[in-house]
Amino acid sequence: MKFKDLGLCYEILSSIKDIGYNEPTEIQKKAIPNVLMGRDILGCAQTGTGKTGSFIMPLIEILNSGKSKSRMPRSLIIAPTRELAMQVSEEFIKINKYLKLKMALLIGGISFGEQDFKLSKGVDVLVATPGRLLDHIERGTVLIKDVKLLVIDEADRMLDMGFIPDVIKINKLLPKIRQTLFFSATLSNEIRDIGKNLLINPKEILINPYSSTSANIDSIFIKTNSKNKMNDLKTLLSIGTIKSAMIFCNKKADINNVSNFLKKNNFKTASLHGDMEQNLRIKSLENFKNKSVQILIASDVAARGIDIDGLSHVFNYDVPNNPEDYVHRIGRTGRAGNKGKAYTIFVENDHKTITSIEKLIKKKVKKMSINELVSSLDLSNQKSLRIKKIKGKEKHKNKSKLDLLPIENYSNFRESGKIPDFLNIK
Ligand code: AMP
């Protein structure tokens, strides 16, 4: 099935072509025709499946024939985090390229004045986080009683973050007769119950269950102790060819600690967590997306749903407390047919959580120490770099790195916190 078979207009097809999407993803094939027929949707899909396009493309098609009114948006997209809302708005801007629909983004950290001005001019599409939307409703700057199309994105995350009461409040202010598209990465009974209150006879679409990890991701667990975590992370960052990497930490304090440690060791990093000012969060993400920094150190909440082109590595500085977050974190890499690597650092106390992760993904993960990993690596593709570093020692040309450095010596390097020079490849 091609995009042109889905019932989208010429302008949308042209912008899709410009973006470079060759054919619709599975969720797009299944959702778009149903949305265009006016059906409600209960979609179970993770980010990375093309889910955003699956609701943005038909939403634009539907709204294209109509006019916006001041302060009364015709559609509403609710997302749990600012970053996700921004990503949705970016996808909207790309698909709307040849059309003239107007959109406002209502998220915290952006001035009310600016948002108020856009609302007063009239918007077709409102993309919002629940809290900021309710703030606007209470101030009387927006009325949602004219919304014809509602999209709830990442409903399970809304539940985790305690936003469902806000969504229920918003729902009470929306017209009963409307179309609703409801997406969640998981479909627990609780999520289904929430969906039942919002949807009428929905078309159920299930894509790529959340409990599986992509076959494109090589995932390894690195056993260590609390004392060696930082140095092991530094070693992991120094082996292999990293195009861009995300490091996940469970605690905000550790994001700062890891960031300071890596900066001291000449790595260029950016950070992303929920306590940062919005403008700093945007700056971190932009720098990471445009590749001016190679490493983003993030918390789960801030990184949820973030889509980075060509992310080659994910490092879990800690084992996530929630097994589903593991699937989500490592799923940032190995996307769109690319290969990815995921390393998770764990300590003795993490065994119980690892067992829950293995239960969820229904497979055993590889576990080894950093020494075992280094000795198992085939660094032949780094030989040229190594040889450059040991100029003049041509006699080593055909030897592996292990001939040059016995593994017991490597441990000494690790204890001292120094990476062997030839491994310190930037
Ligand atoms: P999402 O699931 O919405 O987070 O989308 C994940 C990634 O897939 C984004 O980078 C999109 O730009 C990309 N994408 C969406 N639709 C397509 C498509 N039909 N073909 C290729 N990439 C796509």
Overview of the molecule:
This protein is an alpha/beta fold. It folds into three domains: 204 residues, Rossmann fold, CATH 3.40.50.300; 160 residues, P-loop containing nucleotide triphosphate hydrolases (Rossmann fold), CATH 3.40.50; 38 residues, no CATH class. The protein contains 19 helices and 14 strands. A seven-stranded parallel beta sheet has the order 3-4-2-5-6-1-7, sandwiched between helices. α5 links the parallel β3 and β4. α14 packs across α15. The radius of gyration is 24 Å and the shape is globular. The protein starts with 9 loop residues before the first helix and ends in a 10-residue tail after the last helix. The C terminus is likely disordered. It binds adenosine monophosphate (AMP). Adenosine monophosphate binds next to α3.
Distance between the termini: 43 Å
Bound molecules: adenosine monophosphate
Question: What is the strand content?
Answer: 15-25%
| Secondary structure category | alpha/beta
User: What is the residue-averaged pLDDT?
Assistant: 85
* CATH topology title of the largest domain: Rossmann fold
Q: How are the strands of the biggest sheet laid out side by side?
A: 3-4-2-5-6-1-7
Name the helicity range: 40-55%
- What is the CATH architecture term of the largest domain? 3-Layer(aba) Sandwich
Largest sheet: 7 strands, parallel
Count of the separate structural domains = 3
Number of helices: 19
Evaluate the radius of gyration.
24 Å
**Low confidence ranges:** 380-426
Bulk shape: globular
* CATH superfamily heading of the largest domain: P-loop containing nucleotide triphosphate hydrolases
Instruction: Please give the number of β-strands.
Output: 14
